[in-house]
Design goal:
This protein has about 550 residues and is of the alpha+beta class. The chain contains 23 helices and eleven strands. It folds into three domains: about 10-185, GAF domain (Beta-Lactamase, 2-Layer Sandwich), CATH 3.30.450; about 205-340, 2-Layer Sandwich (Beta-Lactamase), CATH 3.30.450; about 370-555, Hypothetical protein af1432, CATH 1.10.3210.10. The strands form two sheets. Strands 8-7-6-11-10-9 form a six-stranded antiparallel beta sheet, sandwiched between helices. The protein has a five-stranded antiparallel beta sheet with strand order 2-1-5-4-3, sandwiched between helices. Helix 3 packs antiparallel against helix 4, helix 8 runs parallel beside helix 13 (about 330-370) and helix 20 crosses helix 21. The chain is elongated. Mean pLDDT is about 80; it is low at about 1-20, about 125-130 and about 550-555.
């Protein structure tokens, strides 16, 4: 309903001093007006501000319960911000009035109004004359919300001067509300921007798809908290979505979720490449046939696709918004932005892993070429690398460092390229002079690679794997923790493999005997903590498994 051009609204009246004096027409009202404004200026807590407002208007109309509704400009809907004793029945009545356009009409008129409650189930108003009081909250002729409450009154129609006074008071409350909402929204946007910036930074440096997906779900939960969330990838062979990471879902629930392309919300998004926001899933008839097979109760859903260079590669889906009645357009925008970053990051991680694998294959070829010169130690590099990697994992190393020790293990003996064949392959024991030449291979290996920055992480493994914990090793006679940790791990792994490997002049030790040697030299030749970790691996069978794999490798 449009306002008649000849009709005079409350906001028009307020522009004249004469009208204001007519509205604030008694000492009581003058006192109430100034006390309310003073209280509002002193107290910035929005709940306390409106409690003061409700107490101030008590002489005009007493609200037994009320709600403060704020206009969400993104969704163009009114959200309940403050609920002061509204029952579910009254909330439902107010919701019906919104849906029927009654409240929109009153807000458009921009005048407070009393209207009959047409819903008998609203218990708070049942014993009264069933009236709702609706007061638009207006700042600079712009509606930002409304006060809606059950009126405790026997009067069916309020006097115009009372309605005008209500409007005047509501303007002060509206100004405080606007400032509070602006401040909260500003902080929320800053927080979202910080998290998106953090997401971009962290997603660009993470190693491994699994780590990337876990990071994304963690970041999303900070902004758009939901009961369940998962990231799924399109599998073209099975024409389905494969869940790669999830939050809130039990393992058995994941097994039950067979998502075909085109079916269900995620399948629909994957097929069409369009995001989807469903505020009321149970009443959305498009997905009726899938509701009974969901492994959990679904109230609302937000699902967005993420793309690679050209095609959709997966879907990011959230179920059941936490902290809000449902997902909103602002959640939609944030998730779409994160999904765009996710698609790009997946491409980068895949490229990194491809290059990393090519790099790894190259150094394996290089190491094998060196190992081929030493006819007595075939398989040594592979076993030492596996021993060292397993030890680092046992000691709780991060994935990035695990990758480094793998490269360091592969390259630890690369300096033997500078050792003459007659010494490297000598069938008998080495002379002192020959042993001194052998001892140069850590420095030779380090010098070979130091000009190539991509090999920097491997240098410490190459250079220090023959240092001893007691300071009697080579090439620098470093002692204890002065020896880089990676070098100490390779030292244990290398020594164990040397003791258990056959030589022309002796048969290799039994692994149990070699373990005894490690224990005997714990704290002298070897780092005690690393020996302890290695022994734990031996006791749980991992060392024997690596030896057997090495034997099979050597036979190929």
């Amino acid at each position: 309903m449009k306002k008649n051009s000849a009709q005079t609204s409350t906001q028009d009246i307020l522009h004249s001093e004469e009208s204001l004096s007519n509205i604030i027409n008694s000492p009581e009202r003058i006192k109430a007006f100034f006390e309310l404004n003073q209280a509002m200026n002193l107290n910035k807590n929005i709940e306390d501000v409106f409690d003061t407002f409700i107490k101030t208007i008590k002489d005009i109309v007493e609200l037994q319960s009320y709600g403060i509704y704020i206009l969400n400009e993104i969704d163009n809907e009114f959200d309940l911000r403050i609920n002061s004793h509204l029952s579910p029945e009254v909330e439902s009545s107010i919701k019906n009035m919104f849906e029927e356009g009654i409240i929109d009409w009153i807000i458009e008129e921009k005048n407070p109004k009393m209207i009959p409650n047409m819903t008998p189930s609203a218990d708070e108003c049942k014993e009264l004359k069933n009236f709702f009081l609706i007061i638009p909250l207006i700042v600079r002729e712009k509606t930002i919300g409304a006060i809606i409450g059950c009126a405790n009154t026997e009067v069916e129609v309020l006097e115009k001067e009372d309605l005008d006074f209500l409007f005047l008071l509501s303007q002060s409350a509206a100004a405080i509300l606007e400032n509070t909402v602006l401040y909260e929204n500003m902080n929320k946007k800053i927080n979202e921007l910080n998290i998106l910036t953090q997401a971009s930074r962290e997603m660009s440096t993470v190693i491994g798809i699994d780590n990337l997906l876990s990071l994304v779900l963690e970041l999303i939960n900070k902004i758009v908290s939901s009961e369940y969330s998962f990231i799924s990838f399109i599998d073209k062979e099975s024409d389905s979505l494969i869940i790669k990471a999830s939050r809130g879902l039990e393992e058995n629930s994941l097994e039950e979720m067979d998502i075909k392309i085109g079916e269900g919300v995620s399948g629909w998004v994957a097929k069409r490449g369009e995001p989807m926001l469903i505020a009321d899933y149970q009443n959305d008839i498009r997905f009726n046939k899938f509701k009974d097979i969901q492994p959990f109760d679904v109230k609302n859903v937000l699902s967005v696709p993420f793309l690679g260079k050209k095609d959709i590669i997966g879907v990011l889906t959230l179920y059941n918004r936490i902290g809000e009645p449902q997902f909103k357009n602002e959640d939609f925008q944030i998730l779409t932005a994160l999904a765009g970053q996710l698609g790009t990051s997946i491409e980068v991680v895949n490229l990194y892993e491809t290059l990393s694998e090519s790099y790894k294959n190259f150094i394996i070829v290089l190491a094998n070429a060196i190992e081929a010169r030493d006819q007595y130690t075939r398989g040594h590099i592979e076993r030492v690398t596996k021993f060292a990697k397993s030890t680092a994992e046992e000691m709780g190393w991060e994935e990035e460092k695990i990758h480094e020790i793998e490269i360091g293990g592969i390259l630890h003996d690369i300096g033997k390229i500078g050792v003459p064949d007659n010494i490297l392959n000598k069938p008998g024991r080495l002379t002192d002079e020959e042993y001194e030449i052998i001892k140069t291979h850590p420095v030779i290996g380090s010098n070979m690679l130091k000009s190539m920055t991509s090999f920097d992480p491997a240098i410490s493994y190459i250079l220090y794997h023959h240092e001893r914990y007691d300071g009697n090793g080579y090439p620098f006679k470093l002692k204890g923790n002065d020896i880089p940790l990676g070098g100490r791990i390779i030292a244990v792994s290398d020594s164990f493999d040397a003791m258990t490997s056959d030589r022309p002049y002796r048969k290799g030790m039994d692994p149990k005997e070699a373990i005894s040697e490690l224990e005997k030299n714990r704290g002298s030749q070897f780092d005690p903590d690393i020996v302890d970790a290695f022994i734990r691996l031996y006791k749980n069978g991992q060392i024997e498994k690596i030896i057997q794999e090495g034997s099979e490798y050597s036979k190929n």
